[in-house]
Structure formats: structure tokens, C-alpha cells
């Protein structure tokens, strides 16, 4: 067992006066234009998602799922990032840009790139995935493909299941142009009154509660589906009797859903948030998607009524709102999906033979336990640990941060059970978690009703760290059991997101979490910690110091290596520190899933930096920071990405991993990801990302996620034999 009271973290403790010293660097040796634009880099990330959908070697229903993920990602990008840029331009606020270009030029580039990607996305569906589905016996048909019997069957379905919920809205002097909800799929309809000859306009919303694809009876053993908007469009005469249907076209609107709450000016955060959620529904339009066939009269009317610019109109050569492919991707055809994978129970948490239950407290007392999801089960580790803590009569208190979870989550239920058993329970709920605000408010109130102490974090900061702290009485003494994770306490997403979690009974970590929770439920975070790096005050400083230590080691001829795995790499101070380390000869490996503002190809600056990205069946979500440390490796995991919001406007926590076996596991995973033998995307000096999935011999490169599944299974079997 390592004595962390004397453990040298390389970061100093609460009495280390030089921790806050600011080191001045001469950045004149770094070129001015040394950052990639973050928004264009995000679009490049979504292009990598699209490339998975275009990959014929992947199971076809997974390709359909990637098309839906691309569409959903792009919606959020417009609702938040593009909307935020526009709001700042319109209101005259400073627009943060690290590329030295005018915000309007950045918006223009975003529009150009997004247009090209959306057309490519539609063509991927029409030309690649849809035909591949048909080859596999799953057809998405058009109305013109249907027989008379099919159309009769569909008419019956339309009359009984669709017609009653449709609400056509006319536009005339007595009926102003209706409100168009964000992300809704609509039909713009122009009609002529047969009696008066007058042309009218109507809007019809495609009901979102109905299946996006209507299933037809199988034909020749083939499953068949018709887009719902086509079914509605071909029965408009039932909705407008006596009218001549002149034109009908699908359209879809995206609204600004970027939320702004002045927390220091409100007395009740929940009430302010609920008011902002209502306002968000009516945010200004930010994007109008239409089909290529839409006539100019209809389009001009929409542009005028929605007060939208030509640049914000996206003409697409196929169906709109391919998020509907999420439903098709759930078709029960195992051979068209990734092979089934059942997470294993971490070896340390295997049930005891005598009662079939794991004793988490005994297991964690033996030593730190590192769990890798979804390869190792979240349910049989985090959830079961919390449920045991809720039942255990020796547990006195449970404290937990909750950023995103599900309303029916066993996590929430365990906290309620613990409170009802008389334990002290604190839940720090982040009600400002984007797009989960309304759900978080609902179950936060449910927790409060059960007697849980619910707090909503600090003014001006989101609480994003993933912390669980259990206090247990043992032999008259109090002992801490802690869990620090890289991902949310959400059993549903834990099956799709790759994350790490560290369980520990280390007393120093317990003291760190005790202080941190006290500050989170009280006032500002000011203290320093022993085994944690905590934002917003100390995390960036700590990482800069670790990076600089590697730089100095390299200058002194010592081994030096920096490995960083994050979702996003944007922060200029961190990037500049990596540039300086590279200049000193430090090997810098960056494994990033999404945005990367770091530039390669800068002679004498980024020569020693390698950047890779991996996407696959699981969303790479963990954050790892590993420093060679001249033989004393410093390795951290946690919740923080290298973005301004994470380092300056969120409470984040990284925990140092100290067990040699855990350090080796993390470093080995990293080295596998960075290997030229592993399938990945490489960031090129041009700023483009090139996919490397096939070796020179024509054989597929190693799939990191499949290899990790195999290794985890093998490791478990080896430990079982021992």
C-alpha cells in the first residue's frame, strides 16, 4: 500500500508556496497562426463520423446508426456553437477566436463546410447505405414503388393512426404564419381554392410521436419501410378537401438554443433556468433545411416569414432529418450489427462463492481498483457499490455529483434508498447540463422529496467532475471509500461510452473529497489538494507544471514523454506548453476524439507531436494525462477536457493513478492507440484528417476497441485461474 501522505505528486501540497507561481515564457518563437479553428475542427470530427457510415466493411445497420449520429451531432452544433457565434456578433460581444480571423469570415467558412458535409451525408444515405440495406433485405421505399394493395393498406393506416393527430395550419389574413418548432419536420403546402382560384399556403407538422418510417407488410421476405412524410404528402387531399394541391415540400428549421443565464443576478437558479428553457423554445432561426425540389415561391415565402438569410438555407438532395435512422438501426438483425458484447465484471468485484455477492468495501480496502467501461461493467461496479453502500448499516454518509443520468436510474434510486434508511446523503446536481436541464430539475426534486440534501453547485460554474464519496464506520473509526470517474453516472450511456473509474480507500483521496464536497455545497473552491487536480483554480496550472517538467527533463537529456487523451484540445496555454515541450525534444502524443486546435507541420515547433483520433462502436470518452516523470510516471484520469470552459468555468477533477499495474494498463492502451498498426485517423500537417484502416499488406489494421475487449476478457480469465 502506498503511503500517500508522503507521496510526491510533483505538484506540491497546500503549503507549497510556489505552486501558484506563474512562469513567464517567450512565445515569440511560436508562430502567430499556430491554432486550428475550433469550429472547423469540430466539423472535421463529424466528417470522421460520416466516414464510418461510408465504410462498406462495417455492418450496415451500424452504418445507418452513424448517419443518425452525424445528423444529431450537426443539429447540436448549429443550436449551440453557430447560434452562440451569431448571438455574440449581433449583440456586439467579443467573439473568442484563436485563429486571428473576423467572426463573419469564420461563419462563412462554417457555412461552406457544413453545406458540403450535409450534401455528402445525404448522398451517403441515397447512394451507399440505403442500397446496402436493400441488399440485406431492408428496403426504404418511395410511394411510387408501391402496389395498389400496398397503397390501400397504407390508406387504412393513415386514416386510423395518422390523420387524427395531424394539424394543418393555414396562412392567410386571419391566420398569421405559425410558430415552427426547432428540429421539427414539416410540409410546406401551396393550395388553390377551386371556387375562388385564390392560392393559399399551409404548414403541416409531421407528428414526432409517430414512427419516422412506417412499416409495410413484408414482400418476398424483405422488410419494407416508407418515410412518414411521404405517406402524409400523398393524402393531403383528405386534409384540404375541395382544394387543388399545387406544391408540397418538406422543410426543417433549427433554432438558437444557446442558453444564457446571469447567475449572479438571479435569486433562484431553478426558476431562472425554467424561464430560460421556455425562452429557448422560441429562439431565433439559425438554419433552414429544404429539399432540392422546393420551388422558389415556397422557398421565398419561408425565407421571408422566418427572417432567415440565403446562407442559412441548406438545399439537400434527399430526405430531411436522418435522425430517424436511429429507429431503423434498432432492427433485430444481429448479423447486420456489431457482434454482441457483454461487459465482464471487474476481477476485484467478482461475487463471493458463499453468497453470490461481491463485498466492495473489502475489495477496495485491498487496493485501488481501476475499472474500464464498457469492457468492464458499470452496473456490477459503480451501481452495485452504491447499492451496497445504501444498504450497509455501517455507512453513515454518501456524497455524489450528478451531471447527466436517467430519471429511472438505479443511481438515483440508491441515493433515495440511502436517505430513507437515515443516512446523510448529498447530491450535487448540475441542472445546467446542456439539453438535460429539464430532466435534471425533475429528478433533483424527486431526490429532495426523499430527504436527500440537493445542492446545485457554485454560481458561475458548472460542476462537471464525477465523484462519489462514501463514509463508513469501521471498528470505531471512519473510513472513506471513493470513486473518481471520467464519465457520467449514467447506466445507459455507460454501455456506449468508453470511460475509466478509480475506486480507492486511500485516506488522502478521502480527505481531498471531503474538502471538495464541503466547498461545493458551501462556497468557492480555493484549497489545493494532495492527489487531485481541481479546476477552475489549479488544474491548468498543475498540467502546465507537469508539461514543463517534461520539457526540462528533455533539455537535461533525461527521458521525456507526454501522453494526453481528451475529447477536445483547444486551450491555447496547454497547446503552447506542448509546443514548447516539442521544441525541447519531448515526444508528445495526443489522442483526441473531437476538436483539436493544435497544428502540425510547424517547423521547429510541432515536429515531435503526433495526433491521432479513434472512432468506433463505442464513443471514446475517457481523459488520460500521462507524464514519463524521469522514471516516476505521473498519470491522471478525470473529467476535464482541454477547453476554456472546462479549465475556467467548470469544477473538474483529475485523480492521480498510483498503482504500477494501473499505470501500465493506461500507458499500454495509449501506446496501442498511437501505434501505426492500429486503425485511426491521423492529423496531417495540412490540417486534414486521413484515415488509416488498412495496412500496406492490404489487411485491416488493429481495431483498438475489439483488441481491448479481447484483452479484458483474457485478463479476467487469467486472474480467475490464479
From TrEMBL:
<feature type="binding site">
    <location>
        <position position="497"/>
    </location>
    <ligand>
        <name>ATP</name>
    </ligand>
</feature>
<dbReference type="InterPro" id="IPR025198">
    <property type="entry name" value="PPK_N_dom"/>
</dbReference>
<feature type="binding site">
    <location>
        <position position="404"/>
    </location>
    <ligand>
        <name>Mg(2+)</name>
    </ligand>
</feature>
<dbReference type="GO" id="GO:0006799">
    <property type="term" value="P:polyphosphate biosynthetic process"/>
</dbReference>
<comment type="function">
    <text>Catalyzes the reversible transfer of the terminal phosphate of ATP to form a long-chain polyphosphate (polyP).</text>
</comment>
<dbReference type="Pfam" id="PF17941">
    <property type="entry name" value="PP_kinase_C_1"/>
</dbReference>
<dbReference type="GO" id="GO:0008976">
    <property type="term" value="F:polyphosphate kinase activity"/>
</dbReference>
<feature type="region of interest" description="Disordered">
    <location>
        <begin position="1"/>
        <end position="20"/>
    </location>
</feature>
<feature type="binding site">
    <location>
        <position position="621"/>
    </location>
    <ligand>
        <name>ATP</name>
    </ligand>
</feature>
<dbReference type="Pfam" id="PF13090">
    <property type="entry name" value="PP_kinase_C"/>
</dbReference>
<feature type="domain" description="Polyphosphate kinase N-terminal">
    <location>
        <begin position="35"/>
        <end position="140"/>
    </location>
</feature>
<feature type="compositionally biased region" description="Basic residues">
    <location>
        <begin position="713"/>
        <end position="722"/>
    </location>
</feature>
<dbReference type="InterPro" id="IPR025200">
    <property type="entry name" value="PPK_C_dom2"/>
</dbReference>
<feature type="region of interest" description="Disordered">
    <location>
        <begin position="684"/>
        <end position="722"/>
    </location>
</feature>
<dbReference type="GO" id="GO:0005524">
    <property type="term" value="F:ATP binding"/>
</dbReference>
<protein>
    <recommendedName>
        <fullName>Polyphosphate kinase</fullName>
        <ecNumber>2.7.4.1</ecNumber>
    </recommendedName>
</protein>
<dbReference type="GO" id="GO:0009358">
    <property type="term" value="C:polyphosphate kinase complex"/>
</dbReference>
<dbReference type="InterPro" id="IPR041108">
    <property type="entry name" value="PP_kinase_C_1"/>
</dbReference>
<keyword id="KW-0460">Magnesium</keyword>
<keyword id="KW-0547">Nucleotide-binding</keyword>
<keyword id="KW-0808">Transferase</keyword>
<dbReference type="InterPro" id="IPR003414">
    <property type="entry name" value="PP_kinase"/>
</dbReference>
<dbReference type="InterPro" id="IPR024953">
    <property type="entry name" value="PP_kinase_middle"/>
</dbReference>
<feature type="domain" description="Polyphosphate kinase C-terminal">
    <location>
        <begin position="532"/>
        <end position="694"/>
    </location>
</feature>
<dbReference type="Pfam" id="PF13089">
    <property type="entry name" value="PP_kinase_N"/>
</dbReference>
<keyword id="KW-0067">ATP-binding</keyword>
<dbReference type="Pfam" id="PF02503">
    <property type="entry name" value="PP_kinase"/>
</dbReference>
<dbReference type="GO" id="GO:0046872">
    <property type="term" value="F:metal ion binding"/>
</dbReference>
<feature type="binding site">
    <location>
        <position position="434"/>
    </location>
    <ligand>
        <name>Mg(2+)</name>
    </ligand>
</feature>
<feature type="compositionally biased region" description="Low complexity">
    <location>
        <begin position="1"/>
        <end position="12"/>
    </location>
</feature>
<dbReference type="InterPro" id="IPR036832">
    <property type="entry name" value="PPK_N_dom_sf"/>
</dbReference>
<keyword id="KW-0597">Phosphoprotein</keyword>
<comment type="similarity">
    <text>Belongs to the polyphosphate kinase 1 (PPK1) family.</text>
</comment>
<feature type="binding site">
    <location>
        <position position="593"/>
    </location>
    <ligand>
        <name>ATP</name>
    </ligand>
</feature>
<keyword id="KW-0479">Metal-binding</keyword>
<feature type="domain" description="Polyphosphate kinase C-terminal">
    <location>
        <begin position="360"/>
        <end position="524"/>
    </location>
</feature>
<keyword id="KW-0418">Kinase</keyword>
<feature type="binding site">
    <location>
        <position position="73"/>
    </location>
    <ligand>
        <name>ATP</name>
    </ligand>
</feature>
<feature type="active site" description="Phosphohistidine intermediate">
    <location>
        <position position="464"/>
    </location>
</feature>
<dbReference type="InterPro" id="IPR036830">
    <property type="entry name" value="PP_kinase_middle_dom_sf"/>
</dbReference>
<feature type="domain" description="Polyphosphate kinase middle">
    <location>
        <begin position="151"/>
        <end position="328"/>
    </location>
</feature>
Amino acid at each position: 500500500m502506498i503511503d500517500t501522505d508522503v507521496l510526491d505528486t510533483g505538484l506540491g501540497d497546500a503549503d507549497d508556496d510556489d505552486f501558484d507561481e506563474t512562469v513567464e515564457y517567450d512565445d515569440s518563437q511560436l508562430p502567430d497562426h499556430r491554432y486550428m479553428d475550433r469550429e472547423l475542427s469540430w466539423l472535421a470530427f463529424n466528417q470522421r463520423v460520416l466516414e464510418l457510415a461510408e465504410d462498406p466493411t462495417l455492418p450496415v445497420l451500424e452504418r445507418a446508426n452513424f448517419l443518425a449520429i452525424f445528423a444529431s451531432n450537426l443539429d447540436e452544433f448549429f443550436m449551440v456553437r453557430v447560434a452562440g457565434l451569431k448571438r455574440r456578433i449581433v449583440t456586439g460581444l467579443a467573439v473568442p477566436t484563436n485563429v486571428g480571423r473576423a467572426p463573419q469570415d469564420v461563419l462563412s467558412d462554417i457555412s461552406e463546410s457544413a453545406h458540403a458535409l450535409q450534401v455528402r451525408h445525404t448522398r451517403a444515405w441515397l447512394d451507399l447505405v440505403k442500397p446496402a440495406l436493400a441488399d440485406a433485405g431492408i428496403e426504404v421505399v418511395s410511394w411510387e414503388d408501391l402496389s395498389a394493395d400496398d397503397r390501400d393498406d397504407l390508406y387504412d393506416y393513415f386514416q386510423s393512426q395518422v390523420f387524427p393527430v395531424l394539424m394543418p395550419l393555414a396562412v392567410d389574413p386571419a391566420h398569421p404564419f405559425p410558430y415552427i418548432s426547432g428540429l421539427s419536420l414539416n410540409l410546406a403546402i401551396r393550395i388553390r381554392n377551386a371556387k375562388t382560384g385564390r392560392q393559399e399556403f399551409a404548414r403541416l407538422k409531421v407528428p414526432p410521436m409517430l414512427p419516422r418510417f412506417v412499416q409495410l407488410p413484408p414482400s418476398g421476405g424483405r422488410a419494407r419501410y416508407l418515410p412518414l412524410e411521404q405517406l402524409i404528402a400523398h393524402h393531403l387531399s383528405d386534409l384540404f378537401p375541395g382544394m387543388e394541391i399545387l406544391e408540397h415540400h418538406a422543410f426543417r428549421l433549427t433554432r438558437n438554443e444557446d442558453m444564457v443565464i446571469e447567475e449572479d443576478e438571479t435569486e433562484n437558479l431553478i426558476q431562472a433556468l425554467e424561464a430560460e428553457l421556455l425562452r429557448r423554445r422560441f429562439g431565433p432561426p439559425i438554419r433552414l433545411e429544404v429539399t432540392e425540389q422546393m420551388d422558389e415561391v415556397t422557398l421565398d415565402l419561408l425565407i421571408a416569414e422566418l427572417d432567415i438569410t440565403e446562407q442559412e438555407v441548406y438545399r439537400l438532395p434527399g430526405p430531411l432529418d436522418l435522425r430517424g435512422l436511429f429507429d431503423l438501426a434498432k432492427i433485430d438483425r444481429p448479423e447486420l450489427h456489431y457482434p454482441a458484447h457483454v461487459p465482464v465484471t471487474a476481477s476485484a468485484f467478482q461475487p463471493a462463492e458463499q453468497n453470490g455477492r461481491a463485498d466492495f468495501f473489502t475489495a477496495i480496502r485491498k487496493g485501488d481498483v481501476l475499472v474500464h467501461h464498457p469492457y468492464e461493467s458499470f452496473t456490477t461496479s459503480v451501481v452495485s457499490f452504491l447499492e451496497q453502500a445504501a444498504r450497509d448499516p455501517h455507512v453513515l454518509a454518501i456524497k455524489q455529483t450528478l451531471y447527466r443520468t436517467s430519471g429511472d436510474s438505479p443511481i438515483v434510486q440508491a441515493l433515495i434508498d440511502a436517505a430513507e434508511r437515515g443516512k446523510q446523503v448529498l447530491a450535487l446536481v448540475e441542472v445546467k447540463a446542456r439539453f438535460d436541464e429539464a430532466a435534471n430539475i425533475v429528478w433533483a426534486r424527486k431526490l429532495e422529496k426523499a430527504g436527500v440534501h440537493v445542492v446545485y453547485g457554485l454560481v458561475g460554474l458548472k460542476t462537471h467532475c464525477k465523484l462519489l464519496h462514501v463514509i463508513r464506520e469501521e471498528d470505531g473509526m471512519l473510513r472513506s471509500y471513493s470513486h473518481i470517474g471520467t464519465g457520467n453516472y449514467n447506466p445507459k450511456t455507460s454501455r456506449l461510452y468508453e470511460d475509466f473509474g478509480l475506486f480507492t480507500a486511500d485516506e488522502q483521496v478521502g480527505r481531498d473529497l471531503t474538502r471538495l464536497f464541503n466547498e461545493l455545497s458551501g462556497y468557492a473552491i480555493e484549497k489545493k489538494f494532495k492527489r487531485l487536480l481541481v479546476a477552475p483554480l489549479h488544474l491548468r496550472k498543475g498540467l502546465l507544471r507537469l508539461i514543463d517538467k517534461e520539457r526540462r527533463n528533455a533539455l537535461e537529456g533525461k527521458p521525456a514523454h507526454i501522453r494526453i487523451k481528451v475529447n477536445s484540445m483547444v486551450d491555447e496555454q496547454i497547446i503552447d506548453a506542448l509546443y514548447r515541450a516539442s521544441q525541447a525534444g519531448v515526444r508528445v502524443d495526443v489522442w483526441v476524439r473531437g476538436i483539436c486546435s493544435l497544428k502540425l507541420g510547424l517547423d521547429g515547433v510541432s515536429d515531435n507531436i503526433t495526433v491521432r483520433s479513434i472512432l468506433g462502436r463505442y464513443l471514446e470518452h475517457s481523459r488520460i494525462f500521462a507524464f514519463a516523470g524521469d522514471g516516476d510516471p505521473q498519470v491522471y484520469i478525470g473529467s476535464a477536457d482541454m477547453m476554456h470552459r472546462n479549465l475556467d468555468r467548470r469544477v473538474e477533477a483529475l485523480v492521480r493513478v498510483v498503482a504500477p499495474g494501473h499505470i501500465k494498463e493506461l500507458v499500454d492502451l495509449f501506446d496501442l492507440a498511437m501505434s501505426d498498426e492500429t486503425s485511426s485517423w491521423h492529423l496531417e500537417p495540412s490540417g486534414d484528417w486521413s484515415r488509416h484502416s488498412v495496412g500496406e499488406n492490404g489487411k485491416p489494421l488493429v481495431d483498438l476497441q475489439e483488441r481491448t475487449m479481447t484483452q479484458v476478457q483474457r485478463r479476467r480469465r487469467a486472474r480467475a485461474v490464479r
